[in-house]
Amino acid sequence: MPEGPSIVILKDLVAGLRLRKPEVLEVTGNVTTIDKNRLLHRKVNDFKSWGKHFLICFDDFTVRIHFMLFGTYLINDSKKTPIKLGLTFKNDQLNFYTCKIDLLEGDINQHYDWKSDVMSTSWDPKLALKKLKETASSYICDVLLDQKIFGGVGNIIKNEVLYRTKVHPLSKIEDIPLAKLKEIISESQRYSFDFLAWKKENTLSKRWEVYLQKKCAADHEVTKQELGKTHRQCYVCDFCQRNYSKK
């Protein structure tokens, strides 16, 4: 599943299109959740990203694309996989595959709180801390995946952030010291931008310190477990990462 930084890369790739505000000349694909004809001969005002969502903004509505687990896209190219949504402009084409597509009515700012997107310039760590405290009995591994708090954070970022901050995934918010919670919040944004840079230079997987690793960066054994209420995969070094809830 693409995480926030990967969606930012897509947004950057279509930056030239954004500047030209192109008219949609043809709409293809097997999407049934939106009226494709509504997009035809309309001009795109902007391309945005929020968390794991790619947003194609028109005057009075926005097409939201969520790539889920297996979604992909191609720019000025196509493949044999059935197209979910294809947009043809004068000089360019965008094709989206195996993704979830919705239409959001009205002003996009009414649908999203940009302060909750770790990749946004409006990201608000104080708001994140406030929301964290409201989930006191939750495990940190679950809360880091809560898109209303950490928009854009996925399983890779979650695992790497918890290893960087030396916190065990099954630590509950109420048991983690305030300074450590602030460190987790800060590291979530910092690692997301590291992820972005490493993804662009194609070195991301070489930089993982715990995710998909048998040994952590400190050469200790890593265990793979499905933890928390979300039962998402966690890669844990019991030597390096402290469980603040374990008495």
Distance between the termini: 35 Å
Instruction: Give the CA-based shape.
Output: elongated
Mean pLDDT: 95
CATH architecture of the largest domain: Orthogonal Bundle
Helix content: 25-40%
Question: What's the alpha carbon Rg, rounded to whole Å?
Answer: 20 Å
Helical region count?
7
Give the CATH class of the largest domain: Mainly Alpha
Number of domains: 2
What can you tell me about this protein's structure?
The protein is α+β, with helices and mostly antiparallel strands. The protein has two domains: 4-112, MutM-like, N-terminal (N-terminal domain of MutM-like DNA repair proteins), CATH 3.20.190; 115-236, Orthogonal Bundle (Helicase, Ruva Protein, domain 3). Helix content is 27%, strand content 19%. The protein has seven helices and ten strands. The chain has a four-stranded antiparallel sheet with strand order 1-6-7-5, with no helix packed on it. Strands 2-3-4-8 form a four-stranded antiparallel sheet. The mean pLDDT is 95.
What's this entry about, in short?
With 247 residues, this protein is an alpha+beta fold. Helix content is 27%, strand content 19%.
Question: What's the layout of helices and strands?
Answer:
Blueprint: H1 4-13, H2 15-20, E1 26-28, E2 46-50, E3 53-57, E4 61-66, E5 72-75, E6 85-88, E7 93-97, E8 100-105, H3 125-133, H4 140-143, H5 155-164, H6 178-200, H7 204-207, E9 223-227, E10 232-236
Antiparallel strand pairs: 1-6, 2-3, 3-4, 4-8, 5-7, 6-7, 9-10
